[in-house]
Each structure stands twice: as structure tokens, then as C-alpha cells.
Design a protein that fits this description.
This protein is mainly α. The chain has one domain: Serine Threonine Protein Phosphatase 5, Tetratricopeptide repeat (Alpha Horseshoe), CATH 1.25.40.10. The protein contains nine helices and no strands. Helix 5 packs antiparallel against helix 6, helix 5 packs parallel to helix 7 and helix 6 runs antiparallel to helix 7.
């Protein structure tokens, strides 16, 4: 999971996907579901970033099905992955609802990586919906979180996004 998160942050979704596919296979062969749910949700996120929307939705379904009710990471991720797919398909109200549902899970936590991923997902939905002010706010949030934690890759990604506005 750590390698995949690093690869996603470094904008290398193909490598993240490969690592996650291997982890998915290994964990699925065991009775362990906690890490598996997160690995599958991350794999859905990597598939989304690779433009594999149908697969992203399939993995999101799988993550939701195997995640414990109180395991906020895979539930938050599967929601913002679905939001990304819906936004690409023009369903902005549906995407906004899923981003809000994901935020309800993420906001009470101090899990920085998930806060960053949610901010970037929110920015992507806003960009596709043609809402530059919301996109800017989401990218500024990502930049603030990244800088506070010293995450240079995420900070650079946020700055690049802000520079295009």
C-alpha cells in the first residue's frame, strides 16, 4: 500500500496499479480483508487515473463489498472514485454528492494522505464541471495540507494545478 500511494502521488498510476494488482492477488488468497479493502480501493483509484472508468467502478464495488462498516479509508476512496467517473460522464450532481459523502468520512480524521486524495478528487470534479473557483479552493487545500506535512510531490502537483487556472 505504501509503495502504491507513493507511486500515485508521484503521478505514476501504472506502477501503482501493478503493485496493487499483486497485493490484491496475495491478500485475496488469505482470509484478511482489512488491508484488502484498502488495496482494492486504491486499485480503483489507480484505474480511474489511468482512464479505466469501468474497471474503477468494478473495483469500487468490490472495495465497498469487503470493507468493514467502520473502515473509513476504502469507503471514502470508493466514493471519490465513483465521483470521478460520474463527473467524466457529466453527472455533476451525483459526483458532488459522492464527494460530500467521502468528505463526511475523511474530514473528522487526521489521515493526511486521504485528505490530499480527496482534495485532488474534489478539484478534478470541479474542473470537469467548469467550476474554477471550487477547483482553486480544492487545490489550495491540497497545497496547504501537503506543505504542512512536507509532502513535496503533492505540493508540486497542487501548484501545477493552480498554475493552469
Amino acid at each position: 500500500m505504501v509503495e502504491a500511494v507513493t507511486e500515485l502521488c508521484a503521478r505514476n498510476p501504472e506502477r501503482a496499479y501493478e503493485v496493487l494488482a499483486e497485493g490484491h492477488e496475495i491478500l485475496a488468497a488469505s482470509a484478511e480483508t482489512g488491508f484488502l479493502a484498502t488495496v482494492v480501493a486504491l486499485r480503483a483509484q489507480a484505474a480511474l487515473e489511468l482512464g479505466r472508468d469501468d474497471e474503477a467502478l468494478e473495483r469500487a464495488d468490490e472495495a465497498r463489498a469487503i470493507a468493514a462498516t467502520d473502515d473509513f479509508d476504502p469507503h471514502a476512496r470508493e466514493r471519490f472514485v465513483r465521483a470521478g467517473v460520474l463527473a467524466r460522464r457529466g453527472d455533476f450532481p451525483g459526483a458532488d454528492g459522492l464527494i460530500a459523502a467521502s468528505a463526511e468520512l475523511v474530514d473528522p480524521t487526521d489521515y493526511v494522505i486521504l485528505h490530499l486524495d480527496l482534495a485532488f478528487a474534489r478539484a478534478a470534479v470541479a474542473r470537469l464541471a467548469g467550476r474554477p473557483d471550487e477547483q482553486r479552493a480544492a487545490l489550495e487545500r491540497a497545497l496547504s495540507v501537503a506543505e504542512a506535512k512536507g509532502n513535496l510531490m503533492a505540493a508540486e502537483w497542487a501548484r501545477e494545478g493552480l498554475a493552469t487556472l
